[in-house]
Amino acid sequence: MEFKIALLAGDGIGPEIMREAVKVLHRVGDAYGHKFCFCQAPVGAAAIDACGDPYPDSTHGVCISSDAVLFGAIGDPRFDNDPSAKVRPEQGLLRMRRSLGLFANIRPLTLFPALADRSPLRRERVEGVDLVFVRELTGGIYFGEPRGRSEDGSRAFDSCVYTRVEVERVVRMAFDMAMARQRHLTVVDKANVLATSRLWREVAKDMASEYQDVALDFMFVDNAAMQLIQRPSFFDVVVTENMFGDILTDEASVISGSLGLLPSASIGGDVALFEPIHGSYPQAAGRNVANPMAMILSAAMMLDHLGLREEAAKVRSAVSAAIEGGIVTEDLAGNGCAHTTSQVGDFIASAIEK
Ligand code: IPM
Ligand code: MG
After folding, report:
1. Against a cut of 0.85, is the pTM above it?
2. What percent of the chain has pLDDT over 90?
3. Which of 12, 27, 60, 272 could form a disulfide with 285 if both were Cys (CB 3.0 to 4.6 A apart)?
4. CB atoms within 10 A of CB 49
5. Which residues, 6+ apart, have CB-to-CB distance to 17 below 8 Å?
6. 74 CB less than 6 Å from ligand 1?
7. pLDDT at residue 334 tops 80
8. Concatenated DSSP letters for 98-139?
9. Mutate which of 13, 76, 80, 90 to test ligand 1's pocket (most atoms within 8 Å of Cβ)?
10. For 19-86, what is the HEC assignment?
């Protein structure tokens, strides 16, 4: 089959990890007789430098005319250190999510057995962890109005806003996902304080009768942050609002041994987007040391989404083989045993055979 894939490498390590994902996809194409037509487009700081806009219309055009979007990373210290910057790379990512209608971000967390001892948690706590976050992605405090500064600059405000429709569509997705997994859904909120969280609870409770086979529970976000460390295997599907999901998924990611392992899929619109959950890691940019696995596993999620399940499984087992064989970058390697980004990509690509 033939697929058109938009490549938005973005900033920092984005281009070098993207190169490895493309290498792997080419190999999948050769092995299984598919053709991936790649179309690169600028986003983030790279796009600001090129044309002053972190998500140019031309990039949006490439995305909506593709079968899927692969996205690298966004962010640049030049902007992080300048609170007065009017245009910021992250605005590109947020505008992209919003304009592509990507209201749900799926972040699965599984443990590669070979890495159980690299987790900051004890082996017996992390063994068997298999959970998935469904993070709401186009609402809440990230987008709510009004937001800004008072005229004299002495006050700043952001608004957390959710509508019933916004909550219902993402909670439904989470219920459906739970049905296909262990049938356990945890709604994470702060309903003891926030009106938006009480709306989330109300909506989830209203829907529960449609999903009687799913065990539904509610957890305050501060407690959830603790439970993720104390008994991560309690969770199956976790659904939560945008900001809580951002924070909890970074926390959860290190349970797997490295932030450099976790992929994600952003879905809900006409075209889906696949991206690692880590950031642009500017300290490593251009050094060929960053872990490309989260990017490659994001490409595997994309293959699943395109209906290429066998191919996706093959990519995942090639990543496992790399981990088991110690073909890993410095974040996962013991002293002196680190491989480069491109060596890891080469190994994974070469492990793919039909
Ligand atoms: C993420 C990132 C983004 C977010 C940033 C880069 C805007 O942290 O995808 O988790 O906060 O959503
Ligand atoms: Mg984040």
Report:
1. yes
2. 92
3. 12
4. 14
5. 72, 73, 276, 290, 291, 292, 294, 295, 296, 341
6. yes
7. no
8. HHTT--EEEEEEE--GGGGGGSSS-HHHHTT-EEEEEEE-SS
9. 90
10. HHHHHHHHHHHHHHCCEEEEEECCCCHHHHHHHCCCCCHHHHHHHHCCCEEEEEECCCHHHHCCCCCC
